[in-house]
Write a structure and sequence with these properties.
- This protein is mainly beta and about 400 residues long.
- It has three domains: about 90 residues, Immunoglobulin-like (Sandwich), CATH 2.60.40; about 100 residues, Immunoglobulin-like (Sandwich); about 140 residues, L,D-transpeptidase catalytic domain-like, CATH 2.40.440.
- Helix content is about 10%, strand content about 35%.
- The strands form seven sheets. The protein has a five-stranded mixed β-sheet with strand order 21-20-19-27-22, with no helix packed on it. A four-stranded antiparallel β-sheet has the order 1-3-6-5. Strands 2-8-7-4 form a four-stranded mixed β-sheet.
- β7 and β8 form a beta hairpin.
- It is elongated, with a radius of gyration of 31 Å.
- The relative contact order is 0.14.
- The N terminus and C terminus are likely disordered.
- This is L,D-TPase catalytic domain-containing protein.
- Keywords: Acyltransferase, Cell membrane, Cell shape, Cell wall biogenesis/degradation, Lipoprotein, Membrane, Palmitate, Peptidoglycan synthesis, Signal, Transferase.
């Protein structure tokens, strides 16, 4: 008993306790000190030194609530940002860890980012202007400088966000180096709210450009109005929210001036316009020249295709195509159409012998590209994003190891 008691006394005097797991000892940031300043032109990297610990979760967020996307290695030894830091911002990074026995750890770092030494500012202007539109209206983004290489386009596209309520799947398309269009997979829902915002302020695009502040845009949609003109039967059917509301006899383009097939979007409306053939390349004095006062003109292409009143061709409406490419109808029907449709409503032509509507450059022909081809216009396609076609800006950097 004495021997046993001696052993017990010895254990009490020198307890064999394990050293507590300390996450702070395991985690290192690449050149960033707590309360210090980081270079916004470089990615943020977090590593675990090992010693029985690994990273399990990371969140990095700035003072305005923007999260920085990142990736975590499969073994939990390294996390790195995949989206650029913003210049002139302050960040809070929270790192969760665990050791081999599952004991959790935590480390928090706060730091600021300085301003780049040399930069040009990339400004973005969203379009169209705020207001109510038809369900076919694309959102546009016009850049103040050309962005040509894929890495820079990815940086821009990740920062441009379009949300709708109800939510729909959609994607950006690079029309050219300064212009992007955004559309859903299908048309917008009726009576939806669409907002476009930019998170590019202070973000590095490339060595020459950093993102500037951008005014957000809010649009709403009205009823789903779709006009379908069949050039072969010389009739236009107008639908509201899927219901047929009017059937109109029309005339479309005659041989040599055939109306373009495909989906177009209402661009603007003019109660009166003087139409002259010289503006579309028809020589004055030729057999096809004209100079006519036209009422209730609804424009669908910038090259001069309208839906309008054509009282001079009433005898052919519903039976023959005699126009120079426009869709003509009676004055009464044209006035009704003018007051029924709005910018962004859909005007589709089928059965014409003419060319197909171009996707870009002559109005909004965006809907003439199928979804697979539209997605190919996104710089994010194939960059490892979860779903580049949906194109949702990453809202969280909370990532688990990849397995």
């Amino acid at each position: 008993m004495a021997v046993l008691g001696t052993a017990t006394a010895c254990d009490s005097a020198h307890p064999l306790t394990a050293e507590p797991y300390d996450a702070a000892r395991q985690i290192a940031f690449n050149g960033v000190q707590d309360g210090g300043t980081a270079d916004p032109g470089k990615p943020l990297e977090i590593t675990s030194h090992g010693g029985g610990g690994r990273i399990t979760d990371v969140t990095a967020v700035d003072e305005s609530g923007r999260y920085i996307a990142g990736r975590l290695s499969g073994d939990g030894s390294r996390w790195y940002s995949t989206a650029p830091l913003a210049a002139g911002s302050r960040y809070t990074v929270r790192v969760s860890t665990e050791n081999d026995e599952g004991a959790p750890g935590r480390k928090v770092l706060t730091f600021g980012t300085g301003a780049p030494r040399h930069r040009g500012t990339l400004k973005v202007v969203f379009g169209p202007r705020a207001g109510e539109y038809g369900v076919g209206q694309p959102v546009t983004a016009r850049l103040s400088a050309p962005v040509k290489d894929r890495a820079s386009r990815i940086a821009v596209e990740r920062g441009l966000k379009v949300d709708s309520r109800p939510a729909v799947e959609g994607s950006w398309y690079w029309v050219d180096s300064r212009t992007l269009h955004y559309r859903p997979r299908e048309y917008w829902p009726a009576h939806a709210t669409v907002t476009a915002t930019s998170g590019l302020r202070g973000v590095k695009i490339n060595d020459r450009l950093w993102g500037g502040a951008t005014k957000p845009l809010k649009l709403t949609t009205g009823d789903r109005i779709e006009a379908v003109t069949n050039a072969g039967t010389h009739r236009m059917a107008v639908y509201r929210n899927g219901q047929d509301v009017k059937d109109i006899p029309v005339t479309t383009g005659k041989p040599g001036f055939e109306t373009r097939n495909g989906v177009k979007v209402v661009l603007e409306k003019q109660a009166f316009v003087q139409m002259r053939s010289a503006t579309v390349g028809i020589a004055a004095g030729s057999g096809d020249s004209y100079d006519l006062p036209v009422h209730w003109a609804t424009r669908v292409t910038w090259s001069g295709e309208y839906v309008h009143a054509a009282p001079w061709s009433v005898g052919s409406q519903g039976s023959a195509n005699v126009s120079h490419g426009c869709t003509g109808m009676s004055t009464e029907d044209a006035e009704w159409f003018f007051h029924t449709v709005h910018e962004g409503d859909i005007v589709r032509v089928v059965g014409s012998e003419g060319e197909s509507m171009d996707p870009f450059g002559n109005g909004f022909g965006d809907w003439n590209l199928d979804w697979a081809k539209w997605r190919q216009g996104s710089a994010l396609l194939g960059d490892g994003s979860d779903d580049p076609g949906r194109h949702k800006v990453v809202e969280s950097a909370r990532l688990r190891p990849q397995v």
